[in-house]
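Q&A FORM
Asked by: J.P.
Topic: structure of Ribosomal RNA small subunit methyltransferase A

PROVIDED:
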Amino acid sequence: MPPLRDVINRHGLSANKALGQNFLFDAQLLDRIARVPGDLAGQDVFEVGPGPGGLTRALLKAGAKVTAVERDRRCIPALAELGEAFPGMLRVIEGDALEVDAPALFAQRPHIASNLPYNVGTALTVGWLSADWAPWWASLTLMFQKEVAERIVAAPGTDAYGRLAVLAQWRSTARIAMPVHRSAFTPPPKVMSAVVHIVPADEPPGVKFKVLEKLTAAAFGQRRKMLRQSLKAVPRAGEAAEAVGIDPTRRAETVSVDEFVELARALS
Ligand code: SAM
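REPLIED BY: S.T.
REPLY: Here is the structure written out as tokens.
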């Protein structure tokens, strides 16, 4: 395969800021990211935003069958060349990942791997985490700005802990697989990044997702207030909190994921 920088130059792929384009060229780093989901030989992978195809190459080299959705038409010819080098292994869809019916594209559960465009990364991730359980995907390996990655894996009692942490952790395990320095990207973004690895677990029984969503919205919507006040927006939540042993004078950021689950179960 030609070096990625040559591919970029030959296809005139100057980075477009509006599309969140910060490209990765370091083959070793890309191989490390492609190893995060585990052995990909023969596995389906869904990639959002392949761009010139750096991560795509690494995934293909690892033996994955990749379906990639790319919004920037300029990247399609470069990706077609990559497809020729890995016959039958790469399917490229030109489109917006927010609109594509991704589950319909796969017969077996794909791993999702992406150096996400920062402007739609959180929306896509929240969508994947809100899917019916067991989800249509096998794991998520996602590059985020470091601050977003920290919010996903945050523990109670920290400033980073909030709705995203509860959403990511109540029926999945979430960890930071590796930090990535801003200088690894072209052009370099202003902030550091990190790859997050999320693996779905069993859904706790008896809990309605919508109820958990309402509780976390109310509790973290007024995170500095006591639960007694912040949970007023959810009928019966105050009494339910006391019934499951959560002191109503506590604040949302001290309530563990398991405690939110208990509370949601009591209200579901
Ligand atoms: N995967 C490449 C890499 O690691 O070098 C590029 C990553 S770059 C951070 C994000 C990519 O997502 C860009 O190629 C951009 O055009 C694409 N993109 C942005 N918004 C998108 C959307 N809504 N749907 C699909 N792709 C999108």
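FOLLOW-UP: DSSP finds eleven helices and nine strands in the chain.
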